[in-house]
Structures are given as structure tokens and as C-alpha cells.
Design brief:
Elements (H helix, E strand, L loop, with lengths): L1 E10 L2 E11 L2 E6 L8 E10 L1 E6 L21 H13 L3 H18 L1 E8 L12 H14 L2 E8 L21 H14 L5 E2 L1 E3 L7 H14 L3 E5 L3 H11 L3 H8 L6 E5 L5 H10 L2 E4 L1 H7 L6 H6 L3 E4 L9 H16 L12 H17 L15 E4 L11 H10 L6 E6 L2 E2 L6 H14 L2 H4 L3
Parallel strand pairs: 1-4, 5-6, 6-7, 7-8, 7-9, 9-10, 10-11, 11-12, 12-13
Antiparallel strand pairs: 1-2, 2-3, 4-14, 14-15, 15-16
Helix pairs in contact: 2-3, 2-14, 12-13
Amino acid sequence: MSTYYAKKILLQDGWNNDIYFEVNHGLINNISQKKPPKDKISKHLDIVIPGLCNAHSHSFQRALSGHTEHIMGKSEDNFWTWRKKMYQLVDNLDISALSAIVCQAYKEMISRGYTQVVEFHYVHRDDDQKDINNKLFHSILKAAKETGINLIYTPILYQRGGFLDEELSIQQKKFYSTIGDFLDHYEYAKSLIENPHKIAIGIHSLRAVNEKSLRKIADFKEKENIPIHMHIAEQKIEVSEFSKLYGTRPVEWLINNFSVDESWCLVHATHINNREVETLAKSNATVCICPTTEANLGDGIFRLKDYIQHKGTFAIGSDSNISIDPFEELRWLEYSQRLVNYERNISSKDNIGCGQFLFNETLKGGANASGYTNLGQLADGSSANLLEISSSNPSLAGHSNKTLLDAIVFSNQNSLIAQTMINGEWIDNSDSAGKTLIFNNALEKIFTPEESNAK
């Protein structure tokens, strides 16, 4: 057991000064202003805030960062052209490369303030084999254990190439699995995942899984009492195609046909109408918004202003990992709303600043999406996942409790985080030049010299 002193700490009731707390077996206990004997205090901390949940990540796509920022011989570029580049990456992935990429991504997540990650994993094969390759899962779990991040492994069902049950393309074959194989893989992964790591389940999208399969997965998650994740309404063309076939919009159809509640995490939900905004908020599902990825792909902008008016729950995710920084996601979330609404301070509510509101709401949504009931808060019995922030950083100078979180979110200072604790352990992120070199070498092999030397 260790006892810590925090000069300032963000608790459930807001900022508190001069607080002592114990960490034992990865949990926080005995939060108090009562000073223990001096020789019992293990460490003095500066400003302490909870770590954040990355509620949606395809970590292997970290390798694409910077490789898709040009038009590939076409007059226009969009999600669908980007997807071709992503498929090329999948074709060149093997187990060793995946391991190196995921490990690097998780290191970067921890250094920027994420303490848990929902890994939305649908690459189930690394070659033409018929069975799911469990070694790919092992690579992800190993990376989580080596870096120290809390993993919510989320295997994803992917079965078809479109709403009309089209055959999968050659590039998509690595994503495919039958329901039986998929659930066998889930059980296998579950048998190896131990606390503090967890497992969830999901489908890729309504485009990739039909209603019958989705119902089986939804029923299964009820039996397992775990969160379920899925992409939905990310692209306009998908919403249009779905509406023509079903006579209703994707989010509306889902809520009308399934018992959507707080255990559901719907990723993006970018293109929704007024009725869907309201019913989605009332369902208590979490919408995972991924602003930097959505901006990078040109997807569109989630209707946050309307959604928070209906008290909807939301989380954030790094998704394609083009950029890994939870505070950047929160900045983009607010700034994108200002751009489309021609207003400032869209997220400021009841005299609470935008940064404070977004941070607090993201903690709640991340807890729902991850399935951890004791995450997203610093309280007696909660997981000891926290960030120490340096009060000497110039970006925080002159800020009171009222504006401190606003400064942390909007200052864009990577040096704010002094150190990170996950499950009661301080994370040494110094590297590991060795791990970084492995990552660098993996990417050198994946991307051709011709591309690397392109002017």
C-alpha cells in the first residue's frame, strides 16, 4: 500500500486541495484531508486528474499516419479511397508487424493521457487460412501487458461486403468469420484475459453484418453482460443505401428493432436527423465520437450541440490513430461545433466551461463503453488510473479551479502530463528506444522504398 498527497485533485464533487489518498491493489481508498504521519506519505503529487478511456481504436492503422495525405490519381479523395490504402496495409501486416505497431500506439496513448483502450479488432487472419488466427489477438494482449494500458479487447464480426449480402472483396477476406468461429474466438480470448483487462464484443457495421447475425451477437452480449460496439451512420452514402432498402434510417432502425441501452456504444453516428438525435440520447447508449479521424476522412461532424441538449452520453476515440491525444479530440469536438454553428462555447453549460464539461462527460461515456464501473472517476474503490499535471506549466498560469480544466483541454501542451499511474503503478514511458526501433523497422518493411522516397 502507498499513500499519496495531492496538492490539487479532481474528485467527483470537483476540485479539492490538499488531499491524501491510499492506493492498494490497484484501487484508491481513504481519500481524506486528514494528514497521515509524514513517514507514511510515499509521494507528493501536483495536480491530479483521472485518466481517459480511448473508446474506439484500430491500433494497426497507426501505421498509416501521414501516408494518405495525397490524392491517389483521382479527382477527389474520400473515405472510400482512403479505405483502399488501409486494405493495402492489411495485406502487408503480419503478426510481428502488428505487434510492433500496436505496442507503439499504446505507448503513445499512455503518454498523452489515455489509461484504457477499447480495441475494435476485426483483422482476424494474416493470410488465406480459413480459421481465425488467435496469434493476432495475442499480439494485442501482449502489447497491452508490456505497455501497461488497460485493454478492452473487442472482437468484431464482419461477414459481408454490403447491405445486399454482397461477397467480401479479396482484401476483406481477412476480416471474415462465421458466427460459430467468431464466438469460439471470443471464448478463447475471454479465457486468457485477466484483470485489469476486459473483453467486449461487436459488429463492424450494419453494412458488414445482417440483422440475423446482429441479433445473435446482441443476445450473446446480454448473456455475457458486456458492452457491444458498432460503427453506424458514418458515411452519407451508407445512410442513403440503407434507407432505400429498409425504408428508415440506420440509427432509427436499430433503436426500433433492438433494446439499445447504456451497454451499446455506437461509433460516429455522424449523419443523423432530429428524431434520431433525440431517441439516441434517450436510449442512454454511448456515442463514440472520433473528431480527428472524422476530420481526416472528411466524414462530417456529429450533431453535438443538439445531442447534449437532450442529455446524450458520449465518449471519444482515436479511431484510425492518425493523431493520438484525448485533449486534441476534445478540442476538435468543440471547435468543429463552433465552425458549423457560428457560435462559441457550444459545450459550456450552467456556468461550466467547455473543457470541464467535455472532460467530465467523456469520463462517464468512457466508463460505459469500456464496461468498467469503477473507471472515469477518482473515488474510494475506483481504479487508480490517474494523470499528474504540472502546475508550473505556463499554460496553467493564472487559472483558478473554474478555468483549470479549460486550460488543460485547450492549451495544446503535450508537456502538461508529468506522469501516469495505471492500476496503481507508475508507467515508465521513457523507452524504450528498443521498442521504437522495432516499430520503425516494421514500417520500413511495410512501405516500399519508392513510396518512402517520393517527392
